[in-house]
Amino acid sequence: MRDDTITTIISENKILTAMVDGHMTALVCERYGGPDVLKFAQLARPAPKRGEVLVRVMASTITSGDRRVRSMDVPYGFRTLGRLALGWRGPRNPVLGATFAGVVEAVGQRASGFAPGDAVFGISGFRMGGHAEYLCLPAKGAIAHKPADLSFEEAAALPFGGGTALSFLSRAKLQAGETILVNGASGNVGMAVVQLASDMGAVVTGVCRSSRSAQVRALGAERVIDYQQEDFTATRQRFDVVFDVACNRSVARCLQVVKPGGRLIRLLSDLPEMLGAIARPSREGRRIIVGTAEESADNLKHLASLVVQRRYRPVISRVFPFAQAIEAHRYAECAGHGESVVIKMKDDSQTADAVATGGQPANADKPG
Ligand SMILES: NC(=O)c1ccc[n+]([C@@H]2O[C@H](COP(=O)([O-])OP(=O)(O)OC[C@H]3O[C@@H](n4cnc5c(N)ncnc54)[C@H](OP(=O)(O)O)[C@@H]3O)[C@@H](O)[C@H]2O)c1
Q: Which atom of ligand 1 is least distant from the CA of 246?
């Protein structure tokens, strides 16, 4: 990879390297570490293979997944597995960016469903690649047409939190009228769970710090527990579903607040916990759900239809121009944002400031 990279010059937040024919600007991560390991480079522009589409990326996000891959921050027991899967010293695919929104530039042979010029959004999972001007991915992958009333920045913010929330809520078969507690309700995934569960007719309790409680209520939580004042596992109430995003309490403690017959969703498990949950998926009639989110075009289409019906909206913290993508990684590293940190590929700082929603959902009204 290093041989065909050309260092890119950044000045006054503008990427100055002239586009070299057949190349593109990308943010690359060649070794694991903090935001400072990242740099801009010119890479060969990918060409769509059979069954693939080439997307000109307009926006991408920095998710907790990008932060974990960049720093190889994986739960206990997964470090060796993680390095074998992703690359030993640095990610094998050095371009991070699991989400994208953009315009189809070209389609490979036998790639159906998309045509050049289509506005799309999606999630490329561990293939990543969204932090570059172009990316290729299978037409049958997690890619869908972008709703017209959603900006590229909002569309890029849709798949990670929304897709993860949808995937696990459907595995838990959440029903209208059921009670659900969301631990980590002010995070990217947590805010999506609060919105979607509330839209499904569930009664939502969110766990977050007090400064975020108004926002979590506005998204649909009927009750909020301030984790700095109260331990949610000590509450007297029992819930049909506990959606544990923060995973800062043991499985045994969390199960104490799950009703008999209820479900506990754990988004982050170390190896012993994961094996335990697979070997004993049910304890005293309470089901434990672990694993990774399903990334599917159907989930994206469903999210898009909820957006069109004004029943769901991604929450954006801040939009950074591509030239400030390293700064955006530093910003995303700090606790307390939760919402999506978006990278906008076309360098336009003024638009970036205008689009930023200051921590409020793009549609600040309660969905529904
Ligand atoms: N299994 C999967 O497929 C999957 C998919 C997506 C994400 N994940 C994992 O899920 C986790 C959350 O992802 P995310 O994107 O939502 O991250 P995020 O946006 O960084 O949100 C994490 C949230 O946890 C909250 N939190 C921290 N300490 C807490 C505590 N003691 N009590 C309650 N809440 C607390 C944070 O609140 P403060 O701001 O107050 O600190 C923040 O709102 C990550 O570990 C990620 O790797 C797993």
A: 24
Q: Whose CA is nearest to atom 39 of ligand 1?
A: 336
Residue nearest to atom 44 of ligand 1 (CA): 64
> In this structure, which residue's CA is closest to atom 48 in ligand 1?
267
| Token pair for 115 | 């045509």
Residue that is written with structure tokens 């390293």 in the block: 326
DSSP state of 67: H
Whole-model pTM: value is: 0.90
CA of 334 to the centre of ligand 1 (A): 12
Q: How many CB atoms lie within 10 A of CB 5?
A: 18
C-beta of 63 in contact with ligand 1 (< 6 A): yes
User: Beta-strand (E) ranges in 158-238?
Assistant: 179-183, 203-208, 223-226
Which residue's CA is the closest to the ligand 1 atom numbered 2?
A: 292
349 Cβ below 6 A of ligand 1: no
Domains of the chain: 2-158+314-355 (3.90.180.10), 161-289 (3.40.50.720)
In tens, the pLDDT along 129-152 reads: 999 999 999 999 999 999 998 999
CA 258 vs CA 137, 201, 279, 350: distances in Å: 40, 19, 19, 48
Report the first-to-last Cα separation within the chain, whole angstroms. Answer: 48
pLDDT average, residue stretch 54-65: 96
pLDDT of 357 higher than 50:
no
Sign, CA dihedral 90-55-293-162, equals positive
- Residue labelled with tokens 């012993």: 272
pLDDT of residue 349: 43
One-letter identity of residue 70: R
Q: What is the CA(17)–ligand 1 centre distance, in A?
A: 37
